[in-house]
Amino acid sequence: LSLKFGDVGNLKGLVIRFLLTTSYYQVSVQNWFSLHRLQLLYNHSIQATFNATRIHAPSSYSYHCEHVSSLQRYDALLIPSSANDLSKLWEVTFTDFQIQGFNIQEGHFAYAKDCASFFSPAILMGLVMSLILLLVLAYALHMLIHLKSLDRHYECKASPAYFAQMKDSDMGDEKEPLRSSGSESYELRNQDFCKIYI
Predict the structure, then answer these.
(1) Which of 62, 78, 120, 145 fits a disulfide with 109 by CB distance 3.0 to 4.6 angstroms?
(2) 139 pLDDT band (50/70/90 cuts)?
(3) pTM attached to this predicted model
(4) How do the domains of the chain map onto residue ranges?
């Protein structure tokens, strides 16, 4: 597949050539195409050659990527074929790159297989945060299930408690005499007591 730009400045007859191959894979039971190599031609000769990596899709699909570049900051899908040629002097970057070499219908791209990995850093961070929240929720449910409910009813009544006279002299400040009957009894000052039903 060749893109011919003609004369661009001092570059005479600039051509970008994509070498595509197709192969049949028994695992997927279909043909896949791959971008094998990219060549830059001007002045009627090949000036730079880049080997393409991980640029492939089913033959009935197209391939799409936000950046296809020889630069490391764009994941370097294009690698200079040799350290001895002029490829290392070139920096090639395609923005919003989409290609389809086979089974083209009505001059339109087919459904695109995107280069974005399913496990991108943002997706992995979201999965980790979801796992942490799930663990917190599981711990909270575990604590709620094992929480013992207090099925106790407290009934407090204010009724005097009577005790026979005690001979100890040090208990005098905790009781006061009752003067209601002939027999001398003592009443505790705190008269509230509770019955607990469980």
Answers:
(1) 62
(2) very high
(3) 0.56
(4) 2-116, 119-156
Average pLDDT over the chain, rounded to an integer: 77
Q: Which amino acid is at 60?
A: S
Cα 198 from chain centroid (whole Å): 50
Is the confidence at residue 130, as pLDDT, over 90? Answer: yes
Q: Could you report how far apart the first and last alpha carbons of the chain are, in Å?
A: 87
CB–CB of 49/38 below 8 Å? yes
| pLDDT (0 to 100) of residue 119 | 65
